[in-house]
Amino acid sequence: MISLEDSKIVVVGGAGFIGSWVVSKLAKKRPEKIIVIDNFFLGREENLKEAKQLIGDRLKIHKCDAMDYDLLRDLLCKEGQIDVIFNLAVKPLLVSFHDPVDAFETSVKIAMNLLELQREELFQTLIHFSSSEAYGTAEYVPMDERHPLKPTTAYGAGKAAVDHLMISYYLCYGSDVAIIRPFNNFGPRQNTKEYAGVVPTTILKIMKGEARSYLAMENRLEITCTSKIQLKLLLRSMKLNIRAVRS
Ligand SMILES: NC(=O)c1ccc[n+]([C@@H]2O[C@H](COP(=O)([O-])OP(=O)(O)OC[C@H]3O[C@@H](n4cnc5c(N)ncnc54)[C@H](O)[C@@H]3O)[C@@H](O)[C@H]2O)c1
């Protein structure tokens, strides 16, 4: 198990929905420092208010495009030896429908940058957030890690490609990586405006009395409330590394 106490942690995409909950949770683990890297495409500084209150100046926020290798490298070098990087940066699924190149390239380029910087020994452990979108439509339920990767969108293809990249770096270089594939999440801090996903959009419609029939979806999706269950699972999954995922 990785000890988070006194560790230096980077969260890429840390101003977003799940990323900011990861930051909040980590802030309670007495880290030496948490460094958020986000280009604020969808991230919001107010998502980090709770963590700021908890650890003050030990939370650093950098507005930075993680697709820019040199910028990212400079930033990590300035921060000194880092213990863990969580990667949650992504372009939302809806972007991939009208701009599949952007959605795919964002996922792959950021992951590639991080894997290369890890190979340069600028940090120890990489925990990557993939998605159930990497599996595509369920061929059986409940889906598990053995389910084939058959993504049906460029967003999902980006996720599947990055998962393969991560595994290849582990097999080729012994990189210390872990992959998490969450299903649908909902909860506070989630984007409900442009590019909002189906779950928050539907919840808002139900709250406004506009979409009662959508209630049928509860039996079809695996939904996790991020602020409660998902983060417990995340911290438990940090005991795992890619060896566990492959076995
Ligand atoms: N929300 C869900 O239901 C769900 C389900 C499965 C997997 N995931 C995965 O979890 C992770 C977080 O998802 P989320 O829902 O919090 O999304 P989000 O859009 O709220 O957060 C993503 C963050 O990445 C940032 N970002 C985008 N491009 C960037 C770039 N080039 N450089 C730096 N930062 C950049 C955004 O500004 C945003 O803050 C993603 O990898 C996503 O695929 C989410």
Could you characterize the architecture of this molecule?
There is one protein chain. This protein has 247 residues and is of the alpha/beta class. It contains nine helices and eight strands. The chain is globular. Mean pLDDT is 86; it is low at 214-229 and 237-247. Residues 13, 15-19, 37-43, 65-67, 88-92, 106, 129, 131-132, 182, 184-185, 191 line the site of nicotinamide-adenine-dinucleotide.
Blueprint of the fold:
Layout lengths: L7 E5 L4 H11 L5 E6 L10 H7 L3 E5 L5 H11 L2 E6 L5 H6 L1 H20 L3 E7 L24 H20 L2 E5 L3 E3 L11 H10 L15 E3 H12 L4 H5 L1
Parallel strand pairs: 1-2, 1-4, 2-3, 4-5, 5-6, 7-8
The chain binds nicotinamide-adenine-dinucleotide.
Concise synopsis of the structure shown:
The protein is of the alpha/beta class and 247 residues long.
Total number of helices:
9
Tell me the CATH superfamily: NAD(P)-binding Rossmann-like Domain
Top CATH class: Alpha Beta
- CATH structural fold name: Rossmann fold
CATH architecture: 3-Layer(aba) Sandwich
Question: Rounded to an integer, what's the Rg over CA atoms?
Answer: 18 Å
The largest sheet has its strands arranged as: 3-2-1-4-5-6
Count the beta strands.
8
Distance between the termini: 18 Å
What are the secondary-structure elements, in order, as H or E?
A: EHEHEHEHHEHEEHEHH
What ligands does this structure carry?
Answer: nicotinamide-adenine-dinucleotide
Jot down its keywords.
8 strands, 16% strand, globular, two-stranded parallel sheet, binds nicotinamide-adenine-dinucleotide, six-stranded parallel beta sheet, Rossmann fold, 41% helix, alpha/beta
